[in-house]
Amino acid sequence: VQLVESGGGSVQPGGSLRLSCATSGLVFSLTNMAWYRQAPGKERELVALSSRGGRTNYADFVKGRFIISRDAAKKTLYLQMNNLKPEDTAVYHCDAAGRFWGRGTLVTVSS
């Protein structure tokens, strides 16, 4: 199983980014997927979930700002991040089935 995140970068507060997680080696349509993040000096925290049944769930601190989605044909998971805040600065990781992790992509929100 391989997960490769992309789309991170530096953005000003209020800006947007779209993260992607390209997957291989798993049956994507049957796999629960998630985005986690880890800020410097902090523990890893769950950002959003996308179940194989199509349900989504969000951490309270991103509700109304982030949208998780998936493209089964491309076997890719996405995270649309809007109205970014400095506290969103972190390395964002893709997770598959709670067992497999990508290396992450860095998001920096700063003026």
Given the structure, what is the number of helices?
0
Radius of gyration: 13 Å
Main beta sheet, described? 7 strands, mixed
How much of the sequence lies in strands comes to over 45%
- Structural class designation: mainly beta
Mean pLDDT metric = 97
Number of strands: 11
Shape: globular
Could you list the spans in which at least 5 consecutive residues all have pLDDT below 50? Answer: none
CA-CA gap between termini: 37 Å
**Helix-residue proportion:** under 10%
What order do the helices and strands follow? Answer: EEEEEEEEEEE
Question: How is this structure best described in words?
Answer:
With 111 residues, this protein is mainly beta. Helices cover 0% and strands 51% of the residues. The protein contains no helices and eleven strands. Strands 2, 4, 5, 6, 9, 10 and 11 form a seven-stranded mixed sheet that branches. Strands 1-3-8-7 form a four-stranded antiparallel sheet, with no helix packed on it. It starts with a strand and ends with a strand. The model has no long low-confidence stretch (mean pLDDT 97).
